[in-house]
């Protein structure tokens, strides 16, 4: 399968799905749900230029390792000492993939809506903490060293999860007083279908094809643990 991918006989999407499966990740387990990378960092332009390397995220670094947070991650690792000696040093206290994160993204679609409500003791979480905007979600990653969520495969094929087709009352944002309804899309996407189309196109772009192996090393490869993980600022609690 690796050789097929190198020879471009299978797409980046298919290769990532296969890797997730081989790693024991499955749609049947929210705690081991398939994980996909954030691949873009431009969610504000009117047009998405896939020939411009500047629109893409740096796939060689963990998502929590933006330029601003490199020092924070490094400091946390260097200065962490568990008095009981039970917990190893880490750069991030949360994880790039977990059950709550999957429910967060898929809150508008059953059975995830019901699972989210159960997790939140019988009601929706407050509106400001919900997944309500793709540009805002990316900005939150850039502003918060404790948010290190990667994506799920649905961002590349399932436009329905971006729409509140069931008409759930997801509450009101505190500052703008706006009701949370459909997910707010980047300016360059004219509809959920258009977002999926362009996002998938970005995944199969020349830039991502040339750099995807760097992200795979972090999540599925030799930079997951040990000295290579420490050097890559890729150690999780």
UniProtKB/TrEMBL annotation:
Transmembrane segments: none annotated. SMART domains: Beach. Residues 1-237 form the BEACH domain. GO terms for biological process: intracellular protein localization. One of its GO terms (cellular component) is cytosol. CDD domains: Beach. Keywords: WD repeat. GO terms for molecular function: protein kinase binding. The keyword Ribonucleoprotein does not apply. It comes from the Eukaryota. It holds the Pfam family Beach. The keyword Isomerase does not apply. This is NBEL1 protein. It comes from Mionectes macconnelli (McConnell's flycatcher). The lineage of its organism: Eukaryota, Metazoa, Chordata, Craniata, Vertebrata.
